[in-house]
Hints:
Blueprint: H1 3-6, E1 8-11, E2 17-24, E3 30-35, H2 50-55, E4 57-62, H3 81-91, E5 98-102, H4 106-115, E6 122-126, H5 143-154, H6 156-170, H7 174-182, H8 187-190, H9 196-209, H10 215-225, E7 238-244, H11 252-261, E8 265-270, H12 282-289
Parallel strand pairs: 3-4, 3-5, 5-6, 6-7, 7-8
Antiparallel strand pairs: 1-2, 2-4
Helix pairs in contact: 3-4, 5-6, 5-10, 6-10, 7-9
Amino acid sequence: MSSDRLNQTLTLRDGRALGFAECGDLQGGIPVFYFHASGSSRLERPADELILADLGIRFITSDRPGHGLSDPQPERKLLDWPDDVSQLADHLDVGKFYVMGWSAGGAPALACATKLPERVPAAAIVSGVSPPECPGQYKGLPFANRLWKFGARRMPALVRFMRRAAYPLIMGDLEEAGKTMSMSFSLEDRRLLDDPEDLKRVAQDIQEGYRQGWEGPVQDDIVNARPWGFRLEDVAQRVDIWQGDMDENVRLHHAQCLHERLPNSRLTVWEGEAHLVLLTHWSEVLAALVE
């Protein structure tokens, strides 16, 4: 894949730059707009890009504001994101497109589904958080995760301190940064990062997300943890929800709440799998999304 395809920018109507990348079947493939996980970037994609070609998918990823190549957007709300995505789709001459989000990318995907119903026929959410009105936001989370989520919702200075403290560890030597990042995951997730190349890819994705510093990821934390500005019950499109039952970052009841409130959803629970489950299930999730 040419680096030019992975490092593109679009100037939006308000003058901000939006970073994006394309891979897969670029000549007529089914457009899928993919939204990255917390602190990550547009570089997040299947390690084996033949998956995309085999499924006939044009895979389009974008940096959210303050991440990677995308300029910050002060005071942004979750429902601001579909406007950026719509402009990117117009720029790429894409009419209708599917959306997919992993972890913190799930809420932006649902925002696009609810605000762009004429363009988005279906969505996929993998290990995605639920909106704050769903019960048990802190239930079952390790202490550090509870503290992080509480800070994002109630005390921004706290989550800003935590992101800033993590920054030098994340942006250090790539190999050492990868090892440090892997220690923050559960044992089930760490086994997926045993391959040094897989660990390197994850670390590169996140280092690119932190290219501008920690403020973009902090703002993303806050946007996801506060009211989303729409009701799940109003999302009419089909939404595929995928969740590992051993996920310590996003507990299973988040997926169950999404499933109960989204009127046209399908929930798949992978037994014995955790937060990084998508690393081994790209083909299954994408095939179901565009079926």
